[in-house]
Design goal:
Distance between the termini: 48 Å
Order of helices and strands: HHEHHEHEHEEEHEHEHEHEHHHHEHHH
Strand order of the largest sheet: 2-1-3-10-4-11
Radius of gyration: 22 Å
Mean pLDDT: 90
Low-confidence stretches: 1-28
Largest sheet: 6 strands, mixed
Strand content: 15-25%
Structural class: alpha/beta
């Protein structure tokens, strides 16, 4: 008889003696979830800091910080991350490569929270001035997508720009050294480069030009199928955080505990958190399930991003249908369980 079987018999015997109340935790396998997050300033950082996700899912959660959506996608593809935070561009790339994931929550439409910053003295006043310059961006990120979309809109040949693939912390360091002329990035690196540079444009302008971007939570399809209640509860907690912020955003002031928790997890300056939160358009849980988002609009947005990435040579092919990579199931169930 194996040691494992002997131990199970011992546990079962002990449980029987102690009573049925002990039986559940005695041999229930505790759920473990690995979640890949990024240092974006948004409301769900508060329940992350408070342990609300662990309480709701009754799971042990391993929170892993990533510098870019491309890194999150790689971790999801390897099976080392179950739920991950990504931008629309890496999400579109992942779906186009048929990675088995589902979009379960649209974090927000990106506006001023992502911007193209020119280093002081670099001679860059507008997008057209990027020709012949060194511009850093994390490849296959929302800012990479926005940069390419801006170049296209302004009729600037991407080949005339030296576009460098750097992660946000590397961008901040290279910018301070003067190694690059401009960068398209998000916070906290965005706040750091702003100290010695100026905003050329942000993602709200690029969205107005017809290339909107968004952030989202995705889940590995196999994990969701095995743990639907945990995914539902993850979505429910996230939606509750957004609802709390949207009801009274002014309460999330620089002096609030929410701002302090967000700053601690993201590295952003606490006094900048209220303004950074305004850099997104956050959908409510009810809006998540609508045609504008998970009910249809998100599928169209992923398809459009994929077509652009194909045009730019960033993905090999565009799928005829992206609906399997988006689901409103969990937001609908979260609403029903309120």
């Amino acid at each position: 008889m194996s040691t494992t079987i002997s131990r199970r018999i011992l546990l079962l015997s002990t449980a029987a003696l102690a009573g049925a109340a002990f039986l559940g935790p005695a041999f229930a396998d505790d759920l473990k979830i690995t979640i890949g997050y990024q240092t974006v300033v948004e409301p769900s950082k508060v329940p992350q800091a408070d342990g609300a996700y662990e309480k709701a899912t009754k799971a042990a959660i391993d929170w892993r910080k990533f510098d870019s959506g491309a890194d999150v996608i790689a971790a999801v593809a390897s099976g080392s991350v179950d739920i991950g935070y990504v931008g629309s561009s890496p999400l579109a790339a992942a779906a186009s490569r048929e990675l088995p994931v589902q979009t379960i929550f649209v974090v927000g439409l990106i506006g001023p929270s992502e911007a193209l910053i020119a280093r002081n003295g670099a001679g860059i006043e507008k997008v057209a001035d990027l020709a012949g310059k060194k511009v850093a961006v994390p490849f296959v990120s929302t800012t990479h997508y926005s940069l390419l979309a801006a170049l296209k809109h302004e009729n600037v040949d991407p080949k005339s720009v030296e576009i460098l693939n750097l992660r946000p912390p590397e961008i901040a360091a290279a910018f301070s050294r003067g190694d690059i002329d401009a960068a398209y990035v998000w916070d906290p690196a965005l706040g750091q480069v702003k100290t010695s540079g100026k905003v050329v444009l942000d993602s709200s302008q690029v969205a107005a030009w017809g290339a909107p971007t968004f952030d989202a939570w995705i889940v590995r399809t196999d994990f969701a199928e095995k743990n639907p209640e945990a995914v539902r509860d993850f979505v429910k907690v996230t939606g509750a955080a957004y609802a709390e912020y949207l009801v009274k955003p002014d309460a999330w002031s620089a002096a609030s505990p929410q701002a302090a928790e967000i700053a601690k997890l993201t590295g952003a300056k606490v006094e900048e958190v209220p303004e950074l939160l305004k850099g997104y358009v956050f959908p409510t849980l009810e809006e998540q399930a609508s045609d504008k988002f998970l009910g249809g609009g998100t599928v169209k947005a992923i398809a459009a991003a994929s077509a652009f990435l194909k045009e730019q040579g960033k993905v090999d092919a565009v799928l005829p249908d992206y609906s399997k990579y988006v689901t409103s199931k969990y937001v609908t169930e979260a609403l029903a369980s309120n």
